Amino acid sequence: MTKPKDMKRISILLLLAALCAGFSARAQETHRFADRDTCSLYLDIYHPAAGAETALDGHAKPTVLFVFGGGFVGGRRSDPFVRPWFERLNADGYGVVAIDYRLGMKDYKVGKGLVGAYKACDRFVLSQQIGVEDVFSAVSFLAAHPELGVDTGNLVLAGSSAGAIISVASAYAIANGETAGLPDGFRFKGVMSFAGAIISSTGKPKFRSAPCPLLLFHGTADGAVAYEHTGALGKGIWGSSFIAEQLQKKGWNCHIWRFEGSTHDVAAYMDFLWPIEKEFLEKDCTLGIARRTDATLTDDSLPRWKPVTMESIY
Fold it and tell me: Does the pLDDT at position 33 exceed 50?
């Protein structure tokens, strides 16, 4: 028989569980934003923490639309690894929307070495393209549902690895007038790219007009996503260094942080580079201040993991 003291303890635990469940329900919502031939796509919404400052000098802080990494073969929109970063953003007054996208390289066999990557380039381009389409669909869904509380006129796109490729490619598409599926006149407030690039099968990518402000993080020894360029005969990956140099020549807003000797680890640095991200979100994205940065650094305090390469992914 349960003792009264035990019953009281159980009642308190049940009450705490109910309160926690209620908090979680308010903090996160899940919605289906698109149905594709092969799958349905969902997004999770994380609202700013209660009491957080959601404006800066009278300007509303943006919502961060996050695109996960995984080599176009895997990954999850709200992986436990990125939750601490979401919580940090929420605590500072930023909403977060984490989205699905179609995995264009899943179950696709890539041959070994540069030859294999070259032959698979068109498939990589397709994977990038459908990822961009899914980002645009998520934006359109949010715009069509203002009751969800996400201002699509105030969005910052962020991505890791394959998600960073999709994010940079999304900004590139908009700058080049490829806006099908987006609300009229749409433009991101900024893009944060953790080891991103642009994949092309038609030669060097060229921005026809100024994109939104870009914040690019990349390891100079990245063996998975090229830091500068890899490929041949007009097919390949053009990385953060190439993109930054092109934008710098035009005088357009771009920040690049080059991690000397770092590999693809940088793709997982979302929660470790908060001071840099915070400054970008506040100055470039919220206040609209035009700035540029080109920095090379080595920081032994940042974590290192087993190197990721094209061969280890595919």
Answer: yes
